[in-house]
Amino acid sequence: MHYFDHNATTPMLREARETWLEAVDLFPGNPSSLHRIGDRAERAMNDAREELAGLLGCQPGEIVWTSGATESCNTVLRSFADDPTCVAWTSAIEHPCMDLTARTLFKRRHRHVPVRESGSLDLERLRTELGRRRPGFVAAMAANNETGVKQPWPEIRELCRDAKVPLVCDATQWLGKEPAAGLGECEFVIGSGHKFGGPRGVGFLKVAEGRKLASLIHGGSQEDGRRAGTENVPAILAMLRSLVVREKQLAGDGRKERAGWRDEFERAVVAKLKGSRVVGGDGDCGGDRLWNTSLLIMPEADCRQRWVVKLDKAGFAVSSGSACASGREEPSHVLRAMDLSPEESARALRFSANWESTEADWLALREGLLGVAKDLLPDGQLSAAPKRD
Ligand code: PLP
Question: What confidence score (pLDDT) does residue 253 get?
Fold first, then answer.
């Protein structure tokens, strides 16, 4: 089976698994316990805190361990929502764990910051709006989970800093695929282990020193009173191990080569399937996107779920959008924000690779997709076979 749904979740890295197994035996204690076994677990957990802070460029005390990005988003927004005068601005393409939470908690105090047709946040619009009023915070993700479009978060950070408005950056899809350095300068940063080779159910929240955080769940005073509940030490250590492995890979040239395999796949499919196109690309492909992600609008066919099912039978696991939105009939809010019609958005298929995906996997996917297209599409929508190189 060729797995092309890594933006939904990615298998645990061998190194992370080893760390997890070792840690289960090495650190059986509760990190809050006062005895030496507890202390050992606490020290290992704090070493991981230091390591993550070093990668992001922030202070270890600013890192709070959570169960993942959904909890991290909810925690930040809940803290802001306690102030009834706080107005929330979130980019129009945030993951539902940010978008839905903002809409639920802030109701009429919530606004969207638009994106351009390319899928990138409209910086000019943000600059103008920040010149007029001051929201309680801006939330803008680092890279989009559906399109892979990279967001100009360093520029957003500067605009917010000048306007003295805190920035909440959901870096869930960015981490492990692009370098973490510099993210720590955002007031709030959100990450999740299972998107970069760590275990599921573990993540973090970076909170700038001095910012008060209201614990989402009540109980113990773990994480300096910012998140109740016993920390999952083996999962935290395994998450860190996977991020460190990915950061090492990021030091090499692998991203460019992998983006090239993805671009070749897109070029071949778009050339062959009349009416198909790349979302967030620069023309037919390229664009400022994560190297692993391809979102294609397929030619007209009954339903994209048929593509997913047929591709699955052919040995390819792909997605019809974000994991949370797939299966729902509503068109993607991300594609709507990029001015795609509901009809076009209903034809979107997402292919997302990881570091271990090879050029041969992308070539096999292209053949698999074209094979399914033969089944699903009338002959007229297929052009002559793409050139093999
Ligand atoms: N943010 C983004 C950008 C995501 O892609 C996802 C998962 O798809 C989440 C948040 C939610 O992550 P988690 O599964 O850790 O709650």
Answer: 80
